[in-house]
Design a protein that fits this description.
about 220 residues; alpha+beta; about 35% strand
């Protein structure tokens, strides 16, 4: 008996989530890092330990940068989040030349965690994911009767979107090689520089859930 392996990775399902949001948001080639956002954090909000969110509408110029940005909403008001968000957006860039002249929405989240070096990505915009063949190759070769596997990797997003310093945070069942297999997949993931919900990714922590669902495949009986 062999095994058919179905693998899903991500918060929910990374591939599905990434594809759905890609239709509504531009794919950013460049964006400020966690350190950049911490440096741009409004002084009044920083002193009060207050977080905020701004939704911008911008036009993409010929170099791919947002400009003429206006705040559609700013929460809470009075802390300078709108001005800081516009400065942050000016440092972003889309990679598609065809976006020039188009209007885009740019969410910007100010999380006090960036001030403490504890930012976490919750809605990554995936730039690359392992293939089905990669998942197959990562699974232990021995059949051990396990049908469902869940591994969670804890990583940091490095410059360029690669995952670094990954470690196995959860492994179910443990001790059978599934964690090592998931770690081997880590170089296959790459994250966009700006999350779908409007936060920097480079320098932030990221948890990557990986699930395997195994279905036994009966072999055809050999002909006499």
């Amino acid at each position: 008996m062999s095994l058919r392996i179905a693998a899903l990775a991500g918060t929910g399902a990374l591939a599905a989530a990434g594809a759905a949001f890609a239709q509504a948001a531009p794919q950013w080639a460049e964006a400020p890092s966690v350190a950049d956002v911490a440096a741009a954090y409004p002084a009044k909000a920083k002193a009060a330990g207050v977080g905020g969110q701004v939704n911008l509408t911008c036009e993409i110029d010929r170099q791919g940068h947002p400009h003429d940005c206006a705040a559609l909403g700013e929460t809470p008001s009075g802390y300078g989040f709108g001005f800081a968000a516009r400065k942050i957006a000016e440092r972003m860039r889309v990679g598609d030349p065809g976006m020039a002249g188009k209007e885009v929405r740019v969410p910007v989240v100010f999380d006090p965690a960036v001030l403490k070096g504890a930012a976490t990505v919750t809605q990554p915009a995936w730039a690359a994911l392992p293939s089905a063949a990669d998942f197959q190759a990562s699974f232990p070769k021995t059949e051990n009767g396990v049908n469902k596997v869940r591994v969670v990797l804890a990583c940091t997003v490095a410059a360029g979107g690669a995952l670094s310093g990954c470690a196995v945070d959860q492994e179910e069942p443990a001790g059978q090689g599934f964690g090592d297999g998931a770690l081997a997949l880590a170089p296959k993931f790459r994250v966009g520089p700006w999350s779908l919900d409007g936060a920097p990714t480079v320098g932030a922590k990221l948890r990557v859930p990986i699930r395997y669902e195994l279905t036994p495949v009966k072999q055809a009986a050999a002909k006499p």
